[in-house]
Design a protein that fits this description.
two-stranded antiparallel sheet; 11% strand; 5 helices; single chain; alpha+beta
């Protein structure tokens, strides 16, 4: 069962998100990067350590944006929309923004600050990690 919003649902969720409506680059950032399972798990790990969730994928987003002309990371509205994408991807895991923090390990410098999330909402999904025998 899918709990994260689709890109179209994300665009419809908040009027300012319409800035990226019909934008294929924004759709890739949301569905292909931010909502990818490995990235969401890393965002949770960073959040639990008090580090900004965006640190999990800031460089990947910046590198993708550098290769296309559809989305400009110098635009504050675009960066704020990406922040809302992160929030939308973490919400089903019960994580909500707590405070602002510095984006860690960002090689590109496209993002300097973002939200740190804490688990305080109702979780519809959980991250399960375990060690199993290698065969």
């Amino acid at each position: 069962m899918r709990h994260t919003m689709t890109f179209d649902e994300f665009v419809e969720d908040f009027s300012a998100n319409r800035a990226v409506e019909n934008n294929l680059a924004a759709k890739h950032i949301y569905e292909g990067i931010i909502c990818r399972e490995d990235v969401r798990i890393h965002m949770v790990e960073l959040s639990d350590a008090g580090i900004t969730a965006l640190s999990a994928c800031a460089d990947e987003i910046a590198e993708f944006c550098a290769k296309q002309q559809e989305l400009n990371l110098m635009d504050d509205v675009v960066k704020q929309t990406i922040g809302r994408m992160v929030a939308a991807s973490l919400k089903p895991l019960g994580y909500e923004p707590e405070k602002r923090g510095r984006v860690k390990a960002a090689k590109t410098g496209a993002f300097t600050s973002a939200k740190v999330y804490i688990p305080k909402g109702k979780a519809e999904e959980i991250v399960v990690k375990r060690i199993i025998d290698a065969e």
